Amino acid sequence: MTGGGSIRLPQFADDPEGALRSYCMLGYHIEEYVWTSFECEALIRAAKTSRSAKDGKFAPLMQPHREDPAFLDALRNRKIVAIAEKLVGGPLSGLQSVFYFTKPGTFGFTMHQDNRFVETAPDAFVSTWSAMQDVTPEMGGLVGYPGSHNEPILPTVKTSRSPDAGQDHNAYQEEAVLPIGYEPLDLIVPAGAVLFMHAHFVHSSLQNCSDQFRYSLLLTYVRSGERFRAGANANRTEVDVYS
What we know:
Strands 1-9-4-11-3-2 form a six-stranded antiparallel β-sheet. By secondary structure, the protein is of the alpha+beta class. The chain has one domain (59-192, 201-243): Sandwich (Jelly Rolls), CATH 2.60.120.620. The chain has helices at 16-26, 37-48, 51-54, 69-75, 78-88, 115-118; strands spanning 28-31, 61-62, 92-100, 125-131, 142-144, 156-158, 174-176, 185-187, 194-198, 203-205, 216-223.
């Protein structure tokens, strides 16, 4: 399912208060020009050295910051950390990193809220999704539901989707039941931009119907001292992002 294109949002780099108000109203924010083309290319190159890439499965890389300094540096990106601090209202820790190859044909995520998996205070957690190249709906872009972050954790239903070797298993096992009244919006994220999402913001992603890989990097953060769920597969632990 897709909707209209993303609107131009205030940028923290130019109007931090306006950007914060917009985030609080919509539940998401897209900050442009966070990563340079050189940095994006370097992260893609690093991901391609992984076993997941070499074996041709191109499954997502879970917690690559534990194995590769390039991804630890990415988790500590100063621009991302500074904005995430404003969104959670204080010092924070890194929690998770995932690099997605999203090869052609890969199915996307069903509708979900990230805090269903993390289980922390809703105002204490933020997900960031970085586009390593211009991401369009055809390439498996994200779809969001503005205002849905005001909902509690929603009930879910099991899906009948078959496993996809190139996708996270959490992508397809269940789907959030969204109340009537929310309209889908294609979240158009250009190369080097970062999508910041509230813990309860409902979002999904589309199948990659293009002939290109859709490279992206998920980095998540939690306000320091907050409790959270480690997760059996993610095994989240706090990471110092100020070193």
